């Protein structure tokens, strides 16, 4: 059932006795800007590790442990051009625990969200400094992985200068030092007052009890009830190219293709099928023809960002054969555009996606993630397995024909 607790504050209750743990997901969404990702990531870390009542990470963890190991985490993510701060909570359902863990969990969520370790309009200084240092180290650590480095450099090359999408959802290490306890507290107030809020509950608690509990949280109405998610930038006339040289044993070839954003659920699932046929599965053309048959890549796969109008390809190659691999990638796309794949290949790809979708129904986190995405996109509830099964060969060909190469990044091992 769906409820509007206030303007821009929504609750969905999914009643189920299937899982031993009840799950809560609270999503705060706002359009990403060039400056808000880093502060919101630091904010998430501050909320997760301390409150006024439980001022240290140890004190907070001890209290949660007393509640049969209730877990509360706060992190960031991005959907299209929306930046999201997400609180997730899991706890034993009341029938198994034989105590009122649901209301205890909601009380702890209220403490985390509405009673942070802050006074006089700013976060606690020592706690802020510690979490800022940790965040810088975490972000810098991401880039130690050369595969991650190459993927990020491709996105820097693809997204146009000044585009908010150049900024990762986790922020930038160099921006952390510009933040203060007061500026992040202002970001916190803005999030609580202005972000669209979607609350999802999955578990075995009476629906009215769930509604009453979340109605009691001090959320107020806000104007951000519907937000622009899709991001589609103007295409380049010429493919953007960049080569960097590092002492790596394996070169990283990354390619970006633009395609239309997915405006409805059928287009979304057709694009998923195309991606799995192209490079997203062990049955894909990139995997079978470039890695297995030609032995020109240590790995070769594609990733679809359906709400960004972007498909990226990652391949581990030898520097001397990188150009040949890039050419073969284009040839695999042309083959799909010309319908050069069998009905059996299409069936195998769809079967794999259907199995993934159905297995996701056994994972509480997957169920909540799908429901949240549908709510933000205003998609009606649907059976994804049926929509995948309905995808035709002609539909896949038509999606393939919309792709245009936009950027190529090579992290070369030659110096």
TrEMBL record:
Residue ranges of the TM segments: none
InterPro entries named among the record's database cross-references: MPP/UQCRC_Complex, Peptidase_M16_C
Domain named Peptidase M16 C-terminal: residues: 179-353
One Pfam family per UniProt: Peptidase_M16_C
Designated name of the protein: Insulinase family protein
Organism annotation: Limosilactobacillus panis
């Amino acid at each position: 059932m769906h409820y509007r607790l206030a303007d821009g504050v929504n609750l969905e209750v999914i009643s189920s006795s299937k899982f031993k743990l009840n799950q809560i997901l609270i999503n705060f969404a706002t359009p990403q800007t060039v400056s808000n990702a880093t502060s919101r990531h630091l904010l998430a870390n501050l909320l997760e590790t301390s409150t006024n009542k439980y001022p240290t990470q140890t004190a907070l963890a001890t209290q949660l442990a007393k509640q049969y190991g209730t877990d509360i985490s706060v992190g960031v993510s991005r959907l299209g051009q929306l930046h999201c701060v997400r609180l997730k909570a899991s706890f034993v359902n009341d029938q198994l625990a034989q105590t009122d863990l649901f209301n205890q969990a909601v009380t702890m969520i209220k403490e985390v969200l509405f009673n942070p370790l802050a006074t006089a309009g700013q976060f606690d200084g020592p706690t802020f400094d510690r979490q800022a240092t940790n965040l810088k180290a975490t972000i810098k650590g991401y880039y130690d992985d050369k595969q991650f480095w190459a993927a990020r450099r491709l996105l820097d090359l693809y997204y146009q200068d000044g585009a908010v999408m150049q900024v990762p959802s986790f922020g930038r290490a160099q921006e952390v030092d510009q933040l203060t306890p007061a500026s992040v507290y202002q970001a916190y107030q803005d999030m609580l007052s202005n972000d669209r809020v979607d609350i999802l509950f999955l578990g075995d608690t009476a629906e009215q009890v769930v509604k009453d509990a979340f109605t009691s949280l001090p959320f107020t109405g806000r104007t951000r009830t519907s937000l622009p998610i899709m991001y589609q930038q103007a295409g380049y006339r010429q493919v953007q190219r960049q080569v960097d040289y590092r002492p790596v044993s394996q070169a990283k070839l990354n390619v970006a293709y633009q395609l239309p954003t997915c405006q409805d659920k059928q287009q979304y699932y057709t694009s998923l099928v195309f991606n799995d046929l192209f490079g997203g599965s062990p049955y894909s053309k990139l995997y079978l023809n470039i890695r297995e048959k030609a032995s020109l890549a240590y790995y070769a796969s594609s990733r679809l960002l359906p709400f960004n109008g972007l498909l990226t390809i990652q391949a581990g190659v030898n520097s001397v054969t990188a150009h040949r691999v890039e050419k073969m990638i284009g040839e695999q796309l042309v083959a799909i555009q010309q319908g050069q794949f069998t009905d059996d290949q299409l069936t195998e790809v769809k079967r794999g996606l259907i199995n993934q979708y159905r297995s996701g129904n056994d994972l509480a986190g997957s169920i909540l993630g799908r429901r949240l995405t549908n709510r933000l996109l205003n998609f009606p509830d649907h059976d994804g397995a049926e929509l995948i099964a309905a995808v035709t060969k002609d539909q896949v060909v038509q999606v393939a024909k919309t792709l245009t190469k936009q950027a190529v990044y090579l992290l070369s091992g030659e110096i």
